[in-house]
Amino acid sequence: MLADNGLHERALRLLDECSPEYLDETHWVPSNRWWLMEETGRCREAIAEIEAMPDLDADERDITIASLLAQDGRPDEAIKLLRSHAGLAAATDLAVLLMRQNRAAEAIAVIPSVAAQREDAQRR
Q1: Between the CA of residue 28 and those of 4, 22, 34, 64, what are the distances in Å?
Q2: Model confidence at 50: pLDDT above 80
Q3: What's the whole-model pTM score?
């Protein structure tokens, strides 16, 4: 509710006050924390936190870092990182980022076919 009302810093402080036991039981806190850090302009700090977590899923890590890079004004780095990943999530994020860079033809080209999307869904 805090974030929905533009109180990103306050929401971030609330997450920072969570007990270690709660954080161990709750898997959504890190991703929400990084999103809040992105919203408050702390992208580089969030990237450093993510890079310090070696057991994080590689695709999730890189997709999150790409979003932070783009928000931090480094879209070319984000595009390069997303291009290195297969899968619908990376392709979708890449297409959106390319569209924001006015690169519509490239964006359309990276969107997987319906058959490839079905295959990706079946793998998951």
Answers
A1: 17, 11, 10, 13
A2: yes
A3: 0.81
Q: Which tokens is 12 given?
A: 């971030």
The token duo for 113 is: 């076919």
The Cα–Cα gap between 78 and 65 comes to 8
Interatomic CA distance for residues 93 and 29, integer angstroms: 21
SS3 track for 31-98: HHHHHHHHHCCCHHHHHHHHHCCCCCCHHHHHHHHHHHHHHCCCHHHHHHHHHCCCCHHHHHHHHHHH
Q: Provide the 10 A C-beta neighbour count for residue 7.
A: 14
